[in-house]
Amino acid sequence: MEEEVQLEKFLPELKSIEIFHWLHETELRKLLIISTILHFDKAETIINQGDVGNHVYAVIKGEVEVSIKDKNDQKVVICNIGEGEIFGEAAIFLASKRTATIACREETTVIQISRQDLIYFFKTHPHAGNKLLMLIVLSLLKKLRHANEDLVLEKQPSVDFAQAAKLIQEFIQETGRPPRSSE
Asked: What is the CATH number of domain 3-173?
């Protein structure tokens, strides 16, 4: 079950999160004011595929699993996200349905920030907001690059067609001898 915990206690851990690393301590403190720290138990779901989301999350402690339901309604694990990484960042830019389910692989603590609060932060703290926005975009680009690499690997044939052609040619050229009798 999720539970809200004391924010200030996590200030040192926030510095190790990719998108918060370049913020000064005063900027992090201001960000904490608009944030919620949540704790989830193992196997708990944070985001459900298909739900409309408006929060971005960063893993402070633990690990989550990203999965989707395929066209046959079967679960397909995409990746795991660990400490220092973010997820749900598309919700900052789009008010659309979540494309994946995020569930905890172990006890997990995350920082959660709503789109509205983050936009307010960007407007009221433009220097920090620009840094944060740039790092969020870079995170999305990194995920896009990994997805593209995965697509390329999946599209590559798993069969060596030159080897297969050679085997088929050898098979066709065999002399059609009858099998040996077991006399």
From this structure: 2.60.120.10
pLDDT for 7-47, tens place per residue? 677 788 888 888 888 899 899 989 988 999 999 999 999 99
Q: What is the mean pLDDT of residues 104-112?
A: 96
Q: How many whole angstroms separate alpha carbon 51 and alpha carbon 65? A: 17
Domain ranges of the chain: 3-173
Q: CA-CA distance, 44 to 40, in Å (whole number)?
A: 6
Q: Are 117 and 34 in contact (CB under 8 A)?
A: yes
Query: Could you tell me the two tokens for 145?
Result: 């690059």
Helix or strand (DSSP H, E) at 87: strand 86-87
Q: How far apart are CA 157 and CA 137, in angstroms?
A: 32
